[in-house]
Amino acid sequence: xxxxxxxxxxxxxxxxxxxxxxxxxxxxxxxxxxxxxxxxxxxxxxxxxxxxxxxxxxxxxxxxxxxxxxxxxxxxxxxxxxxxxxxxxxxxxxxxxxxxxxxxxxxxxxxxxxxxxxxxxxxxxxxxxxxxxxxxxxxxxxxxxxxxxxxxxxxxxxxxxxxxxxxxxxxxxxxxxxxxxxxxxx
Length: 186
Known about the structure:
Distance between the termini: 99 Å
Structural class: alpha+beta
Shape: elongated
Radius of gyration: 36 Å
Oligomer: single chain
């Protein structure tokens, strides 16, 4: 037993304190110390994570555009179905009066049907452009076309079109005014 700073220690307690002091000094000098990562190793890992995240983000943008295109196609398919319901019901075997290029809700036409109005709004929301949907109708036929979100590598936009014949197609041709048949696919 010996006294240290007015405390009485046994030999075992003194050995334990000496061992703790030695471990602390070894950690400070580097002997028997666990090494961490070097700066180069950390920078390499950060660079790899950055490259992987940019690849993932690019893939997500492509998936988002394809999802928007699917939403547009679904909305136009809804219009096609609802137009036939209108034709057999409220329209009395007619699609209503003639309307060209505008999708404005006009009384006495299929474009005044609330389901069709909502589907047109959904298509415009999905392609991100107001007025990108073109609607033509006569008493016996109709066609509706919308710009798709994805574009060809040439930068030319694609259009999705549905009409009263039950047809639907993707083309690079805009639906012309007063035309009630979708352009052929190309």
